[in-house]
Amino acid sequence: MTLDAAAPARTTGTVRVVGTGLLGTSAALALTLRRVDVVLADPSPTAVALARDLGAGRLAGPDDDPALVLVACPPDVVADVVADELARFPRAVVTDVASVKGGPLATLRARGADLTRYVGSHPMAGRERSGAVAARTDLFAGRPWVIAATEVTGPAALQAVRDLAADCGGAPVTMAAREHDEAVALVSHAPQVAASLVAARLRDAAEPAVALAGQGLRDVTRIAASDPALWAQILAGNAAPVADVLEALRTDLDEVITALRSLAADPVAPGARARLARAIADGGVGRDRIPGKHGSAPTLYRTVVVVVPDRPGALGRLLTDVGEAGVNLEDLRLEHSEGQAVALASIDVVPASGEPLVDALRVRGWTVPG
Ligand SMILES: NC(=O)c1ccc[n+]([C@@H]2O[C@H](COP(=O)([O-])OP(=O)(O)OC[C@H]3O[C@@H](n4cnc5c(N)ncnc54)[C@H](O)[C@@H]3O)[C@@H](O)[C@H]2O)c1
Ligand SMILES: O=C(O)C(=O)C[C@]1(C(=O)O)C=C[C@@H](O)C=C1
């Protein structure tokens, strides 16, 4: 799904994005596309410059007067950063996109922060990869964006964050922080643990066994590639609700194991096959309840691979040339092996832009294999 760049943005004034990784840069790209004025800040000069180079906005300066601040930093520092932003910009509404909402809210409340201007939020969209290079303009398109209002949230602040979510392409959903944390334990945090544990079984497995891996394993383990540091913070920040879901899962798992053990001892053990069938059938029923992204199939991109010389400015030139070819970059991955004089850039674009981009890059002197 692509965002409608022509539709006027509801967000007015400057938006300051603090933390220009995957989430911050994706939001900044979506807002910039809608011609919202976006300024970018991050303690990492590389992260912020990269987001700027990707077209996500301009670098923050001392005279900025943002109407809205979007904090997209790691969860364990989010309360500190939100508190700083509230103090630094006393007229701005501040939101954050951290995956847990109760802990940061409690910390801010305990510190006496101005909760009329702070509205925590959480887009239910992301990737198993981090950083601005993984950002996508349409990351939030059609995805729920939870807005965790409190009893003291000012109506204008609430509307500003709803507008921001909608301008990024998300579908705003209002929910209390606690209700949110219990819901995401079920639909996001416990699934991450399950995927990681399944994938971890492969770590020391024999190579011939791993070599047989098919699509089923790939589907179940995509998110096992997620950032361990980020996820340790998310899981620790929502510990009790995640433990509740995993305990229920352990009960089901124990029943399946008992059925399997009884079948191993007696191939006609009564009731065992029924328990196995029920486990699979219940999974099907649960899966059927998962809403699609606007009911549509996921977007498939064409990947164009380009050889990039290992020289300062080469990647910047490539990104400029992609932009000048009039092509919207949906994703960029860089592979670089030590000691090699070149890197490979994999650029994802919508399928219709694939061939025109290959032609345009070759004309500009880039090596595009294949
Ligand atoms: N990754 C996902 O799928 C996903 C989805 C929804 C929400 N979130 C939430 O979004 C937030 C950002 O996650 P991400 O995946 O974009 O991570 P990321 O690692 O891609 O980016 C985090 C950015 O925050 C910056 N940062 C670190 N400390 C900071 C500080 N003190 N102040 C300001 N910036 C700081 C880092 O330099 C980095 O650029 C997290 O709170 C996460 O829970 C992530
Ligand atoms: O698609 C992915 O890679 C994600 O894991 C995204 C996902 C999710 O569980 O859906 C992960 C964590 C976030 O807080 C929100 C979204």
Automatic annotation (TrEMBL):
Enzyme class: oxidoreductase
Entry's transmembrane regions: none
Pathway named in the protein's UniProt entry: Amino-acid biosynthesis; L-tyrosine biosynthesis; (4-hydroxyphenyl)pyruvate from prephenate (NAD(+) route): step 1/1
EC numbers: 1.3.1.12
Stored InterPro entries: 6-PGluconate_DH-like_C_sf (IPR008927), ACT-like_dom_sf (IPR045865), ACT_dom (IPR002912), NAD(P)-bd_dom_sf (IPR036291), PDH_C (IPR046825), PDH_N (IPR046826), Preph/Arog_dehydrog (IPR050812), Prephen_DH (IPR003099)
Catalytic activity: prephenate + NAD(+) = 3-(4-hydroxyphenyl)pyruvate + CO2 + NADH
Signal peptide start and end residues: none
Gene3D superfamilies in alphabetical order: 3.30.70.260, 6-phosphogluconate dehydrogenase C-terminal like domain, NAD(P)-binding Rossmann-like Domain
Record keywords: Amino-acid biosynthesis, Aromatic amino acid biosynthesis, NAD, Oxidoreductase, Tyrosine biosynthesis
Amino-acid biosynthesis in keyword set: yes
Residues in Prephenate/arogenate dehydrogenase domain copies: 13-298
MF-aspect GO terms: prephenate dehydrogenase (NAD+) activity
Residue ranges of every copy of the ACT domain listed in the record: 303-370
Entry's family note: Belongs to the prephenate/arogenate dehydrogenase family.
Name of this chain's protein: Prephenate dehydrogenase
Lineage of producing organism: Bacteria, Bacillati, Actinomycetota, Actinomycetes, Kineosporiales
